[in-house]
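re: ur question from yesterday

yeah so i grabbed the chain u mentioned. its 157 aa long if i counted rite. heres the sequnce exactly as i have it in my notes:
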Amino acid sequence: MEFTHLDEKGNLRMVDVGDKPVTKRVALAKGEVVFPEDVYPLVAEMKVPKGDFLACAKVAGIMAAKRTWELIPLCHPLPISKVDIEFKFLPEKRALEIQAEVKTSAQTGVEMEALTAVSVAALTVYDMCKALSKAIKIQNIRLVKKEGGKSGRVVLE
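ran it thru and got these structure tokens back, copy pasting raw so excuse formatting
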């Protein structure tokens, strides 16, 4: 197996994507925020002391996707054309599912941007809801799908 982020001497490097063709790229990531049993009804009814936590988390996730290259050392800055974040309450799990879709036309993919969007949106939900409980859990952040580039369409879930 070849490690793309290491040079011939084993030193870290940013991958040169300059010769790769520009293609449309899409990545979809998901994650969950799980609430204690007594807190979930308040969250699901949007009765959180800090206000509209979903709007705040959506903006935070979008901002994070656009700044991923500043957070993850070897990521390339990308011209992101779309970031969409959706929330779905899952009563059977006492959870809030967060889904982020990121699109670009570039020489490298947007998987890290989608994962970062979900992560920061989840952290924002935690921050906005922690007054209700410190036992809130963030879990199962994962890539669900990617399209474009050499590997084409990959569905992981």
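noticed a couple things. Helices lie at 40-44, 53-66, 68-71, 111-129. also Strands lie at 23-34, 80-90, 95-106, 137-147, 154-155.
anyway ttyl
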